[in-house]
Amino acid sequence: MIELTHIDFDGEARQGSIVIATAQAVAVVDVFHQLYDSGYPIESIIPIGQLPPGAEDAPGYTNTSGFHCRVVAGTTRWSEHARGLAIDINPHLNPFVRGDEIWPPEAGAYVDRSLGVPGMINEGDVVVSAFDSIGWDWGGRWRTLKDYHHFSSSGR
Fold it and tell me: From CA 81, how far away is CA 20, in angstroms rounded?
């Protein structure tokens, strides 16, 4: 577990914690230093196991997290989150999109990546550049679907 300071949407410094594989910890700390220094806003950083029950499925869910022991939806394959090798950032502003499927469901407006809303992630911005600098890939670059909040060390 890494303890981090991040900037919230009110411009205030906040404390958060993220669980990530030990081998990735130093690199991930560097990413979050870059995000903090740039003023990039993150709503919250709370480990999945410490969220209130049902929070992950609540409207407006935008918690940033790493480790989450689960399989990839619709498969029996472990998610990279289950290995501590993936991070999701501000999911509500950066939805998962596959055809007509959007998660979180109420985040449809944010499929339009040109909105320029603080906390959104776009190609070439500070978030993508920070993860690129440690060799992690962004789900916003995937061809068959877009997972705009997802970064992973394996590209999956």
Answer: 8
Task: Give me the residue spans of the domains in the chain.
Answer: 2-152
CB atoms within 10 A of CB 104: 20
> What count of other Cβ atoms lies within 10 Å of the Cβ of residue 64?
22
pLDDT tens digit string along 80-134? 999 999 999 999 999 999 999 999 989 999 999 999 999 999 999 999 999 999 9
Q: Which residue has the tokens 């997802």?
A: 150
DSSP state at residue 43: S
pLDDT tens for each residue of 50-65: 877 766 666 667 899 9
Please state which CATH class domain 2-152 belongs to: alpha beta
The beta strands (E) that lie in the chain are given as 2-7, 13-18, 44-45, 63-64, 86-88, 96-98, 101-103, 137-138, 146-147, 150-152
Name the packing angle between helices 25-38 and 126-133 (round to 10°).
Answer: 150
Closest CA to 139 of 124, 153, 149, 127: 149
- Secondary structure (3-state) at 8: coil
Per DSSP, what are the bridge partners of residue 16? 4
